[in-house]
Each structure stands twice: as C-alpha cells, then as structure tokens.
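== Fold encoding ==
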Amino acid sequence: MKFSDLRYLFAYLVPVACFFGLYFGGWASGGALWLGFMVVPLVELFVPAAPRKKSEAELEKKAKNVFFNNILYLNVIALYLLVGYFLWLLAQGQMSGGEKVFSVINVGILIGVCGINVAHELGHRAGKFDQWMARVLLLPALYSHFTLEHNYGHHLRVGTPKDPATARKNEPVYFFFARSIIMGYLHAWKIAAKRLEKNNLPRWQNEVFLSHIVQLAWLSGIIWFFGWSVLPLYLAAALTGILMLETVNYIEHYGLVRKKMPSGRFEPMSEKHSWNSNHELGRIMLFELVRHADHHYQTARKYQTLRHLEESPQLPFGYPMSIGIALIPPLWFRLMNPKLEALETL
C-alpha cells in the first residue's frame, strides 16, 4: 500500500462532520450539509480535476489489499453509532426547531453517503459477508430492496426507457424522484418473485418481503427505546438519505440513452452512457462512485481500481456541486442540455 492510498480516510470527514453537528448543535447542526455542499464544492472549484492513471498490474495489487475493504466495513460502526446518537438527542427533547431540521438533513446525508453509497459498493461483491454488510448498511435508510433492483434491474436496463433510474432529458429531478423510487421498488418485487420461481422456493422467502420484516423490527426497536416522538424525524432523515441517492442516480445518467439497433435490442452499455467526474475530494468521499462509467463497464471492479475512461462524458463540476445544481432544474437544464446536444452530434 502506498502512502497516497491513505487519502481514502478523508471519506470519514462525513461522519466526523455529522458528529460535530450533532454534538455542538446551533449553527453547526448542519454538519455534513456544510461539509458536502459548501466546503467540498468550494475546494473542487479551485482544484482542477485530474485523473490518475495506473497500470493494470498496480490496480490488481490494490484490489487485493484488505485496507480498502476495512475502511468500507468501518462505515457500519460509524453509521449506527451516529444514528443512535441522533435518536438519543431527539429523545432528550432539548433541540430547537431549527436544530431538528438541520440535524435531520445532517444525518440524512450520513445515511446516504456512509449507508446507501457504501452498501452499493459492497452489494456488487460476490462474498456473503460483503452482501450482508450491504444489507446492514441499507437498513437505517429503510431501502433494503436497493441492491436487488440496482444489480438486476438498473444495470441491465440503464439508458433505456425501461429503467426508472435513468433520468430523461428535461425531466426535473423532483419528477424523477417519484418515478425512480416507486417504479424501482415495484420492480424489486418482480425480480425477487422471479428469483424465487427460478430456485423453486416458497413465496415467504421473497427477499423484499423479508427485508420489510427486518425494517419493521428496526422501527419497533427505535420506538421501544426512544419513544414515538422520534419516529417522524427519523423517517425524515431516512427519506433525506434516499433522496441523496436518487439525486446521484439522476446526475449519473441524465439524458444519456442507448440507441435501439435494427434487431430491436439496445446497443450494449458503454463508457458513453454515464456522467463522470475526476474531482479528487468528491471521488474520495464517495468511494469513487463518480467514476461511474467504469463501474457500469465492469461491475466486478472494486472502487479503488475504477479507472478514468476517456470516452465517458464529464460533468463540469464534481458530484456534490452537481447535486446542488440538479435541485434547481432550470439551472441544471441550462448547464447540461448543451452538453447533451454536443454528445448527440458525435
């Protein structure tokens, strides 16, 4: 392992910022919000994006280094400790209205980044331990069906009208939220049912159904230990984490479509069908999620080995700033539509 690999520890700035927000309260309550949508975009605005190219031999060596796995697993501890701390603070009943609002956003960002985002990485791996860790990380977001739909739905249908997680050109992100969340959830049930039928298993073993049982047990535990009063704010934080994920889904494939071939099938997924970014800090904090084209090109690649692909379209800003811009649809369309039109002429 090289000393430069330790830069991935900066990903823990998110849980650190979340903790400081919860601990100090007041103006600091935003925590991860101020870090992710003020500090990081400001840094990336002045630090040029520069891909680091490594040989396949070096990448293969990095793929076998357990350091990169361990810093993913540590997110489980950070996530549950901070969610527990958040619930305990709510139960004390001493937060002001403003502190509650910003704490919900603060913890929601934590759930999205350290929970769903890391679960996305682990959910693509074949090992049972990694698969279970992905489930554990998805539980606080109440989004346990995500891995099933993402792996067996989105990755097969991305860039086509059948994929609810591919944003259409001129589609506001708020319309996208409803379509992606609802249709993705319904499709997860279909995928789970087909897997049961294929393996000749009883209906009660439906993965989505079982995940709901676990989620109900989790919510029951929260009510038992912290009381009913914390539940609405916890659900708001979980929803914030989900919307963080779906905003990332929105910008990752916005307007990019796979052409239909004479055979009626869609062209194969390629590096041209995902928006990427090489801004260093955002890459580290999201465990290289921003190199999304290579992730779709070779889903088995671990985050530390994802490459910059020359043919992939590049976002003008890093993912954190792009997320903020996407929440203002007219500004997003003005920024991205000319880039889409330029790609269509190639």
Q: What stands out?
A: The mean pLDDT is 92. The two ends are 41 Å apart (CA to CA).
